[in-house]
């Protein structure tokens, strides 16, 4: 089932174009229900958790977590998305270069513990951002080019602290009917990407088909949420 999308690629510039042209149907103006309903499992009683948001866009989830006393680090290619996040949430921010990544910038909220790196995700690393106690992956693994998934998984695993709890949102549909993105990521691939070093638990599986997806030609869409944790050595 992976074959129809195996060679699909989207240049980074294309994502920047989507933001410039406001073609951002993937952005949600409210906190994602899968994060809200599973937040207790992610926190597991912890306070002041460091959250990582890969391909963060301007997700309102980041402010929601920061308002609860957690810290947030995001990575996003579009400078416009990053600036919109701060402006739409009425936050002042500073902007500075990231010496370790030529051309990259980091935008930091003055009021909340939020730092957003504007750069290629694969240029980010734990030496730049440290490791994280939690990761919220919605619209990231499903958005990257399918051929890059092993590289992506290796980066995510390298960013996980020993107590990290990684919440991953994936989509199941017939990839012969829609080219993506968002791309089809079956549970078996989640297992092959993360199963060697992590335990994986399926927390939720819901019918997520809407008229928007029917417009893509889909006849079913299942949204799965996985909790991924490093195996204790």
UniProtKB/TrEMBL annotation:
Task: Name one matching Pfam family.
Answer: TPMT
| A Gene Ontology term for the protein's cellular component | cytoplasm
- Give one GO term, molecular function aspect: thiopurine S-methyltransferase activity
The principal location of this protein is: cytoplasm
Entry's Gene Ontology BP terms = methylation
Q: Which reaction does it catalyse?
A: S-adenosyl-L-methionine + a thiopurine = S-adenosyl-L-homocysteine + a thiopurine S-methylether
The highest taxon in the source lineage is Eukaryota
Q: What is its EC number?
A: 2.1.1.67
Name the UniProt key words of this record, in alphabetical order.
Cytoplasm, Methyltransferase, S-adenosyl-L-methionine, Transferase
SUPFAM superfamilies listed in its UniProt record: S-adenosyl-L-methionine-dependent methyltransferases
Q: Where in the cell is it found?
A: Cytoplasm
Recorded hits in InterPro entries, A to Z, give: SAM-dependent_MTases_sf, Thiopurine_S-MeTrfase, TPMT
Is this entry keyworded S-adenosyl-L-methionine? yes
Family annotation (PROSITE patterns): SAM_MT_TPMT
* Plastid in keyword set: no
Q: Which family does it belong to?
A: Belongs to the class I-like SAM-binding methyltransferase superfamily. TPMT family.
For this protein, the record's HAMAP family field holds: Thiopur_methtran
Q: What is this protein called?
A: thiopurine S-methyltransferase
Q: Which organism is it from?
A: Sparus aurata (Gilthead sea bream)
Mind giving the lineage of the organism this protein is from?
Eukaryota, Metazoa, Chordata, Craniata, Vertebrata
Name of the gene this protein is made from? LOC115578729
């Amino acid at each position: 089932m992976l074959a129809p999308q195996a060679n699909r690629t989207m240049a980074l510039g294309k994502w920047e174009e989507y933001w410039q042209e406001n073609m951002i149907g993937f952005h949600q103006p409210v906190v994602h229900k899968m994060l809200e309903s599973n937040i207790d499992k992610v926190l597991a009683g912890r306070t002041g958790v460091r959250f990582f948001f890969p391909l963060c866009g301007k997700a309102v989830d980041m402010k929601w977590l920061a308002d609860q006393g957690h810290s947030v680090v995001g990575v996003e290619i579009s400078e416009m998305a990053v600036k919109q996040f701060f402006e739409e949430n009425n936050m002042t921010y500073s902007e500075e270069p990231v010496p370790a990544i030529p051309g990259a910038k980091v935008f930091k909220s003055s009021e909340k513990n939020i730092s957003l790196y504007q750069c290629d995700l694969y240029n980010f690393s734990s030496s730049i951002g440290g490791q994280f106690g939690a990761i919220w992956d919605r619209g990231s693994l499903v958005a990257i080019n399918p051929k890059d998934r092993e590289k992506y998984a290796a980066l995510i695993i390298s960013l996980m602290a020993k107590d990290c709890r990684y919440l991953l949102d994936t989509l199941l549909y017939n990839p012969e009917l829609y080219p993506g993105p968002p791309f089809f990521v079956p549970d078996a691939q989640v297992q092959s990407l993360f199963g060697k070093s992590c335990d994986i638990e399926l927390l939720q599986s819901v019918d997520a088909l809407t008229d928007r997806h029917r417009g893509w030609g889909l006849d079913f869409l299942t949204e799965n949420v996985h909790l991924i944790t490093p195996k204790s050595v």
